[in-house]
Design goal:
By secondary structure, the protein is an alpha/beta fold. It is built from eleven helices and twelve strands.
Length: 332
């Protein structure tokens, strides 16, 4: 697996990482199986997908506990990224950026992950009632205490189809400029995929110019770009795609030309290359500071995602993928 570096501290990780959220959160509960997820994490580490991306809110807490079972045995093989700043209630999620809470949450994450240090600690969301500099200052103190190696900011949120991607990321950049004055940002995590390319406009160049790593979240479009989802098949009520404007039966059918385009490019690279691998290869081609973090809970998909790092897209391929139809969503 190709290695890439994150931030000024030159933290080395595999070019493809493992998003662990689907194992415990936001996707169909009936398909979440602990043993299967554990095998997927082990397989990822075996293949060099060293970055394990989680958060205390996934579950909540159960995803970190699951990873802790692996890290207890294989801590030296992994680069651990977890997040702080969101509290999960029965019917709602709220931000909490108070310094005291951040420090307590870090200690709790360390216990669940069964490790002495978190490689990348990310602010999941800024608390509108707490100056972001205060939250970031508390996170910086965790670095100084040796509990955290580097800090990141998670900018995953509203999608560009609902409002201008530039406006969306302008707000993130202003936030980044503020926290940079307190302590260096090593990585930014934000959505980037063939059907959600808005980060290419301002956010990704901003990070590249400052040597900040970019963790591409949802690089497979919540599974749509794999070509394995059937329009109209439906999702379980607890699956976030059941409420997503791009995952209605009508919109999934309307967006099939995107998958068809990925299939055309994949066919030029051999019968075993998949649309998902082309989608991931396109993300990786957006810059040496970009790390793709596809989420999965199955060994099979971990292996397929890892092989995407070997797919080398030509200039023609990249132009063709970038020129695919714009994704449609029912909010439009």
């Amino acid at each position: 697996m190709e290695r890439r570096t994150i931030g000024a501290a030159a933290l080395a990780v595999g070019a493809v990482g493992l998003g662990c959220m689907p194992m415990s959160w936001a996707y169909s509960t009936s398909r979440q199986r602990g043993d299967e997820s554990l095998r997927a994490v082990h397989r990822a580490l075996d293949l060099g997908l060293t970055l394990l991306d989680t958060a205390d809110m996934y579950g909540p807490f159960t995803n970190e506990l699951l990873l802790g079972r692996v890290l207890k045995e294989r801590r030296s093989d992994a680069f651990v990224s977890t997040k702080v700043g969101l509290l999960v209630g029965e019917q709602h999620i709220v931000a909490n950026g108070r310094p005291g809470y951040v420090k307590r949450a870090c200690d709790a994450s360390l216990r669940r992950l069964q490790t002495d240090v978190i490689d990348l600690y990310q602010l999941h969301r800024a608390d509108p009632e707490v100056p972001v500099e205060e939250t970031w200052g508390a996170m910086a103190e965790l670095v100084q205490a040796g509990k955290v190696r580097a800090l990141g900011l998670c900018a995953v949120g509203a999608r560009g189809g609902r409002r201008s991607g530039t406006l969306l990321h302008d707000a993130t950049i202003r936030q980044l400029q503020r926290v940079q004055q307190v302590f260096p940002v090593s990585a930014v995590e934000a959505e980037l995929s063939v059907w959600s390319p808005e980060a290419l406009d301002t956010l990704l160049p901003w990070c590249e110019a400052r040597g900040i790593g970019f963790l591409a979240a949802m690089p497979l479009g919540n599974g749509f770009l794999t070509g394995t989802l059937t329009p109209g098949e439906g999702f379980e009520p607890d699956d976030m795609r059941a409420r997503h404007p791009r995952f209605t039966a009508e919109m999934m059918a309307a967006n099939q030309p995107i998958v068809a385009g990925l299939r055309r490019v994949a066919a030029r690279h051999g019968e075993h290359v998949t649309p998902a691998q082309v989608a991931l290869a396109w993300v990786l081609a957006q810059g040496r500071h970009v790390v793709a973090v596809p989420g999965t809970k199955r060994e099979r998909w971990v292996t397929e995602n890892a092989d995407a790092a070997r797919v080398c897209l030509s200039a023609r391929d990249l132009t063709e993928v970038s020129g695919l139809p714009r994704a449609q969503g029912s909010w439009e």
